[in-house]
Amino acid sequence: MSVAPPPTVALDDRFARELPELALPWQAEDAPDPRLIALNVPLAAGLGLDPDWLRTPEGLRLLVGTSVPDGARPVAQAYAGHQFGGYSPRLGDGRALLLGELVDGDGRVRDLHLKGSGRTPFARGGDGLAAVGPMLREYVVSEAMHALGIPTTRSLAVVATGRPVRRETLLPGAVLARVASSHLRVGSFQYARATGDVELLRRLADHAIGRHHPGAADAERPYLALFDAVVDAQASLVARWMLVGFVHGVMNTDNMTISGETIDYGPCAFLEAFDTATVYSSIDHGGRYAYGNQPLVAEWNLARLAEALLPLIDDDEERAITLAVESLRRFRPQYDVAWSAGMRAKLGLPAELDDAVFSPLADELLALLEADHVDSTSFFRALGSAARGDAEPARLLFLDLASLDGWLERWRALEPEADAMDRVNPVYIPRNHLVEEALDAATEGDLEPLHGLLDAVAAPYDERPGLERYAAPAPPDFGAYRTFCGT
Ligand code: AMP
Ligand code: MG
Fold first, then answer.
1. 400 with 371: CB under 8 angstroms?
2. Category of 6 on φ-ψ map: left (φ > 0), alpha (ψ -120 to 50) or beta
3. Ligand that lies nearest to the alpha carbon of residue 487, given by its number in the listed order
4. What's the 81 CA to ligand 2 centre distance in angstroms?
5. Residue 254 annotated to the active site
6. Residue pLDDT, tens place only, 353-368
């Protein structure tokens, strides 16, 4: 009998090679007793990684970083960032490692990255570790976002390390294996700019153009075109968040990608009662990252990216500033176009519908949802029934029925298309009480609730009998939801 040779995992070290100043070679801490908690089989297969091999002891060692393939060069990435508005010149991967880049089945370059793999020289006071619960939260929410069609980093696996982590209590430790089109952040550019080395900044920008926005290379001003592309990608991304009620919770510049993917699921949560002032994060006292502030914050973060790029935009600083400001002005119209197109689709209305008709209708609806604290996910799905002639499921969610009925009459006159609505209004989102339930159970060793939730959110538009509890808002005794950054 012949023994199959171990699979080769072809990890490139392009980031480390092209940007050594931003890449600190490092290795993962030992994991005394690695045990697989979650494995994303389709994602693994798409990356050319055999899921059965990933489950073996050797596969688990790759997923926690204690054994890396020949030729791979794990690094901690350096970046800076504005955290809650205050600038930190040196953040970087304090508890994460970029193992390297893979080419997926579609020929796309993908970072393979670990979170919770031990202290690095960027750890400052942190322990470099992560607990099972928060790593599973990232796994569940990022996979839900992906299934909703929203650009995001993906989760390949969560492996418990067998090492306890001290938070308020002792918790089981874990490593999340994450896949992303890159881990370049606004903060990466801030870091490169702060070194004063313009050639490093240029190399970083060229790397970003090559990986994410290749069209920019042919523009008259490639670095301004890179900035434009990031503005467009972020405007469209944040519009998608707003349409689905996603609150990121910690939109620091180090948590905003150049690719336009959602990254770093910390204190994130989904809205239930529609309220633009909603804040879940326990440390966001000023409401800087409240649901309704997210577009403004994205624009603010992009202004920080523009500042970092100035020396590449034009040798004359005044000219560079004028050009960057002009480009940043794209954000609001781009955001409005993306949001309006998405909201027209949610309402089953044609893309060509006149703004003069659409805008007041949409504004009035949001005011009604906010006034009655309506669960917007349930409402938009129920609106599909209303388009088919049964408005009762939608009416049940409201107190002010007279106003709602008036709105419904105007909306129905536009002949909304119910089937199209069902393809864009999810039934299942990772509701906060269900996420908590799944994480608590998994921390105690019971993975049933986690798998139930993952099954529901993996096909969010496809209503299935038996999954009613995944479509319902939190019971009243769940109370006000708070999320924590101490992950
Ligand atoms: P985050 O808010 O998770 O995006 O993290 C912000 C910064 O804190 C990054 O530089 C992280 O690497 C670092 N960090 C967060 N948690 C830890 C930890 N437990 N140990 C070391 N560094 C951490
Ligand atoms: Mg981060």
1. yes
2. beta
3. 1
4. 9
5. yes
6. 999 999 999 999 999 9
